[in-house]
Design goal:
Elements lengths: L6 E4 L3 E6 L16 H9 L4 E2 L8 E7 L2 H12 L3 E10 L6 E5 L2 E3 L9 E3 L7 E12 L2 E10 L6 H8 L15 H7 L5 H7 L6 E10 L2 E6 L4 H7 L3
Parallel strand pairs: 4-11
Antiparallel strand pairs: 1-2, 2-4, 3-4, 5-10, 5-11, 6-9, 7-8, 9-10, 11-12
């Protein structure tokens, strides 16, 4: 039986869940179970509001508000960067630096045929991602790194673009990991066994592990572990 929600925390105002990779946040035409917000509304039998959003293939901590007042307050916190976020990712290659930051402005990729794709461009919106290398390892004769990431801004696809821009794309990333045809093959449902092998993992290896903020005089902090595919490939976390 499908588990509808992996609940981390629930109170009168909040529902915090560990979103699985492969599930979209926003409603779709395929019914309420096909999206996180749809499942939350089914579970609550009432309204629910997404406070933060993750890409379909990104797993991890996702916050929903149970009422419009809480949603408005939390939305302002997010807009004013009053939230601390940490992600973990498995990337291609051995990242040389132990720690660092990527400061690259982001904007629409006008050279791409894929409408949702962005890129690093000098005239884009400022974006900063800080990283720490947790471990370097080898699988099948190839180098990989497990990195911890702290985005200081919240641009679309920021972490994925920044990592690809420094030569370490996220394992399994079909949009920023190399050939754009991997993404087109995914949306057109024509990924071949060879392409799936090239991607290594069924979903890209990016997980929102932690979110924390101060709200109404109290510290809120939530963590969630990555899924089995991520953990198996990365080894002991």
């Amino acid at each position: 039986m499908m588990k509808m929600l992996d609940i981390i925390h629930e109170d009168a105002d909040l529902l915090v869940v560990n979103k699985p990779a492969g599930l979209v946040c926003h409603p779709t035409k395929e019914g309420e179970l096909s999206s996180l917000i749809g499942r939350a509304r089914l579970y609550l039998g009432a309204e629910a509001h997404l406070v933060n959003r993750l890409d379909r293939e990104t797993s991890g901590v996702t916050v929903l508000a149970k009422n419009s007042a809480a949603a408005g307050e939390l939305g302002k916190l997010w807009e004013n960067r009053g939230v601390q976020k940490e992600y973990i990712a498995i990337v291609h290659g051995a990242v040389r630096e132990e720690a660092g930051a990527v400061d690259l402005a982001l904007g629409k990729d006008e050279q791409s045929a894929i409408a949702i794709k962005d890129c690093a461009r000098a005239d884009g919106a400022a974006a900063r991602t800080e990283f720490v290398v947790e471990r370097r390892f080898r699988r099948g004769g190839r180098d990989f790194s497990l990195v911890r990431l702290r985005p200081r801004t919240g641009r679309k696809h920021q972490i994925r673009i920044h990592l690809a821009a420094i030569g370490h794309p996220i394992v399994g990333d079909k949009l920023y990991g190399g050939s754009e045809d991997l993404y087109l093959a995914l949306v057109q449902d024509r990924l071949t066994p060879r392409q799936r092998e090239e991607l290594i993992l069924p979903n890209h290896a990016l997980h929102a592990e932690y979110i924390g903020w101060n709200w109404r005089g109290a510290e809120k902090a939530f963590r969630a572990p990555p899924d089995a595919d991520f953990t198996r490939f990365a080894g002991e976390l």
